[in-house]
Amino acid sequence: MFNSLDPVMLARIQFGFTVSFHFIFPSFSIGLASYLAVLEGLWLKTGRTLYLDLFRYWAKIFAIAFAMGVVSGIVMSYQFGTNWSVFSTKAGPVIGPLMAYEVLTAFFLEAGFLGVMLFGMKKVGRGLHFTATCMVALGTFISAFWILSVNSWMQTPTGFVVDGDGRFLPGDSWPTIIFSPSFPYRLVHTVIAAYLTTSLVVGAVGAWHLLRDRTNPHARKMFSMAMWMAAIVAPVQIVVGDAHGLNTLEHQPAKVMAMEGHYDSHPDGAPLILFGVPNSAEKRIDHALEIPKASSLILKHDLDAPLPGLDTIPDDREPPVSVIFWSFRVMVALGFAMLGLGLWSLVGRWRRRLYDWSWLHRAAVVMGPSGFVAVVAGWITTEVGRQPYTVYGHLLTNQSHSPLAAPAVAASLIAFVLVYFAVFGAGTWYILHLMHRPAEAHEDEPDATPVRTAGITPAPAFGAQVGE
To answer: How does it sit in the membrane (predicted)?
Structure first.
């Protein structure tokens, strides 16, 4: 029944599905690791047990999210060898070392200190434990650094040579490969998105418990910290996103054309299309609601600046406009909604109603998952906008896949969907269960009982009897 399907499209759907699931967890754990470091640092500085309670409360949630992020990411590396073996053969000499650096630096750092952070507070000194927490936070950032370096090179490849077999080989300078033209913008934009995503989750949990008990000191503190983060970071993210868009216009103009919905060139200033229905068959935006010349103002800082359209791109090199057009608008709309929530919280502080303004709390609860939706929408915009290439401008997607039949790819896709929803659905439900319970005074740390793989530890009673 799957023979009539396109195996390349099925492979793309499979990778897109798994990476979307995976991206949700690092976008949370990157920000949450830094939040844990801040909480522990405040506890050490002030001595207030409230910060320690919040640290232990969120550490349990971090442990589960981190574990699901690791497990959900492992299968993607296998897909490079199963569904995308040609891409691995040709691009492996460049991206392989970068991905190995991520394991050798970030993953080893996180693995080495995670156990100390989760279970070692009563076993090591305060300074060493705080160091472990900071190292875990640093490890999540380094992991993002290397993965985004790989992705950025695929988007804006530099520093390579191509041999006679069509393989991409490193040139004279690895820094040129690592720090490709889009990498700084992509790194800052993604890490800020992770911090913003975490702040919205923390704010939603705090708001949820404030709606149940406005006097809860733990809920008040986490809500206040989260809203400060949203108010400060959301406008910064909008500025960084604008700079990233200008960089994309320079290096991947077709992606920006699709994001803006510009099928036609505009020699005298391009409109900003707020909403509309892309019509790929007729190459136009139906029912468009637009602001004249505003796109030229945003992208070129000149109302009358000309902007080329997709009519300058061959049809077989155009990215899928409909997907990119809508995913970009979802991301931008949620970004401005986050800005609105942050400004609303500032009004609440000014009016001394931050902790008893029920509508603000309800809005924060509703906005809780918006960060995850925004980062997935942003990822879709970035990756679908790169099409029809895997290595932009050099290697086409239909030249990168393995010689697999559609039924084989479809079977593994169905298996991934079933397993992912079952396993990670259960994990997500348990995280929500933990969030539903309010943080309490003298919050317990995670169970520190070691799991032994060899040897026998006598029970305390038995040991006492032997001693007698």
So the answer is: Multi-pass membrane protein
